[in-house]
Hints:
By secondary structure, this protein is of the alpha/beta class. Helices cover 58% and strands 6% of the residues. The longest helix has 51 residues, at 2-52. Mean pLDDT is 87; it is low at 1-13, 27-53 and 505-511.
Amino acid sequence: MARQRHNAKHQKPSVKHERVERREHKLELKARKHAESEASHVQRAEELDTQHSEYVPSLSVLFRFLALVRVSGALLSPIQDCDEVYNYWEPLHFLQFGAGKQTWEYSPQYSLRSYAYLHIYDVLIRSMHLVIGFRTKTQVFYALRVCLALMSALCEAVFVRSVAQHVDRRMANYVWLGVFGMAGMFHAAHAVLPTSFAMCLCMLGSAAAMAPPVSDVKRHMRNRAVPAIGAFALAVCAGWPYAGLVAVPFVLEEMLVKGSGASTMNWRAQRLAMLVVVGVGATVIALGAMAVVDSWYYGRPVVAAWNQVAYNVLGQHNGSSTLYGTEPWYFYLKNGLLNANIVMILALCALPMWILYYVALKQTSRTTASVAGERAMRQLLDGHFLLLFRLLPFYLVLVVFSLQAHKEERFLSIVYPHLSFCASAALSMASPLRAWVCAQLGRRSRGGQSRAGFLVLAGAACVGMLRMTALVKYYGAPVRAFMELPTSNITGLLPLGPSIKGLRTEQPLHKDLDRVVCMGGAWYWFPSSYWLPRGYHLQFVRELGGVDGHLPGDFVPAKASGSVQKSTSVERPDFNARNEWEPSHAIELSQCDYAVDIEYPMREEPGLARSSEWQQVGMCHSVLDPVNTSVLARMVYVPHVLAWMAGQRQEWGQMCVYERRNPIA
């Protein structure tokens, strides 16, 4: 009996110990179940949202769908930036017709702009002329714009399909819906600007970079590295030098992420050698071809891309980009809200949400015990880390350009597609983040986030459409006004080379006709010489006010110099790099045959409406007065009645064409 009591006495602690162990084991199982539940919540949220938008349109369908809005923009949208007119449309007009306005950047002593870049469009136009046979310069204008719009739509479709293939199908649907309704893309896609050219090439480069890195060098070069490097190099050399910022995250990913595949000891050295060889090779080929063409036109060795960087960044010729205006640091934030509205807000949220999602994944991975759960979390972490390199181009360009004093709206256009990508990433991370938060709080997460994302982007597209309509309605007067000019009596095909529509000798452009059209303070509204009848040319006058700074001069007519190349290689003393007034670039009002002017009733400015020496030609066309119009009423299209009911003030000016009552003999 004593021994039994002794044994029972010693057994009691062991029973208590077993109970404690069982309790701890239950708590551990509960914690594991909770952790796996969190992981399943995150993974299930992603799977559910992906299933809701599994269908992604094919490349052909995407192209045709995006082409609708791009071609509409090409046909309806006014030119947004006078730099596009005077630095690109006018020199292109000179290459084709031997006359046009010349800015100081095209003077041989500065040579900041590239004729080789313009030759891309010149060859395209002459190729179309061979088949179509252009009879008016407006046909050339619209044909080139439509071609650029279609090219942009194709690049956008390739970008979206790459997102669907390598990143996420739901995000791909978000991306194309974001760019479809983006007002910034509406006018940037068809612009004859290096930034728009670089935007398309950066889309192609980023589409190739969407493919994850792999250790197989040959497959990596074929599917990812070579097409990406080639596109980025061409964007920098033939387009815009500062577009190289978009390629920086790609280079970082190449050096930091090994990728899947066979193990390779020296993979980083191989990647570095590949970047150097392919990058240098592509740069030498592109830059060399550009330099050969530019040197021929300027009459001396020229690398225009370097000259542009030297002037704007290094202060060559005692100049600086700040001579042409400065803006506050938040300019691109404000401009992004105007051109992308809700999409811009979502894009700004993408990086903070990426950090929060990374924290959630790391926390969940620490408490996941099952092998399947660990494997799933590892895949989520690897994919999430790669996502960072796809988000960085937008943020890098936004930050670097915001730090510069000189800012222009078109600079941000190189990352408009990446802006939409960041917004789609933010929408895609919203659902799993909500699932993780609900799991932390012990609540059940509901689906439907994908549907909400589409509704948000549909709302953004509607606002974007109102902005597009505002651009057309409020600022489309210049094109309509210049159509009021009397047409010339010159007929036949334009002198753009041979055409199957007519192989006879074409008539000279300025046959027995030389008319001067003048502009004053409205000089920056000029839609280019493509809207002047054949035999007309533009001049500036100070009598109409608002004319200062270094205005463009005229190219030496090719007819007078003997050839286009002789005109482009002439160094002239009337150009300067300090934005100083040059008197020879303006004439007296008495020398004008026609004048185009805007009169705002709310402003006290000189005009021709009340002059006895001038008479109106045709109809006047309304243009919004942004100074005296309420902010909302000038940002988006608001019908006049609704604006009046909402207390939004709208004031208008009239753009008219005037003809001298007593024509110059």
